[in-house]
Amino acid sequence: MLYFTVRRILLLIPVIIGLTIIMFAIARLLPGDPVALAAGPNATQAEIDALAQQFGLDQPVWSQYLRYVGGLMHGDFGTSLLTRRPVAADIAAYLPATLELVFAAMFLAVAIGIPLGLLTAVWRNQWPDYVSQVFAIGAISMPRFFLGLLLQLCFAMWLMWLPLGGQLPIIMIPPPRVTGFLLVDSLLAGDT
Fold first, then answer.
1. Helix/strand/coil (H/E/C) assignment for every residue in 41-104
2. Neighbours of 51 (CB within 10 A)
3. DSSP output for 167-179
4. pTM
5. Left if phi > 0, otherwise alpha if psi is -120 to 50, otherwise beta: which for 111?
6. Bridge partners, residue 86, by sequence
7. Pairwise CA distance, residues 20 & 23, whole Å
8. 192 band by pLDDT with thresholds 50, 70 and 90
9. CB 86 within 8 A of CB 80
């Protein structure tokens, strides 16, 4: 067992190296000049060159790759050319909303999946089993965008429990930001 675990950990090293090479190559092979795009349409060549030097994009490719990997090893994902902020700060800004979506989806999956599983186990080869199987196959086969539209129609238009787009309606004032999680911040602020 120890041999298997050590072997798996050692095999992880070339996989991580391969992933960093692929991600770096994809970012460099995209068409267009990211520095000129970040500088804007009215930038002079001197401004573009200064920005390329600031981001280290005037160095040889191997030097850029080593700088990229060194930054990753220290938790520095670099600076976004679009927002000019650290990428980690951009990720941290959107992580709470992403985690809320993940937890809501997991809660919905468990709330539907466990009762259907119990139903099929108790009523095996009877009509409740067949109905739950048809429901499960239909839910898996349905395209995600169509399911999303149906959920928007149900929860935003008919039940009016959720806003149609975004986390809050435009006219609503958000609660004070404590944790970054809208649901937790609303509960802490006493909003219902």
1. CCCCHHHHHHHHHHHCCCCCHHHHHHHHHHHHHCCCCCECCCCCCEHHHHHHHHHHHHHHHHHH
2. 20
3. SS-TTSPPPP-SS
4. 0.65
5. alpha
6. 79
7. 5
8. low
9. yes
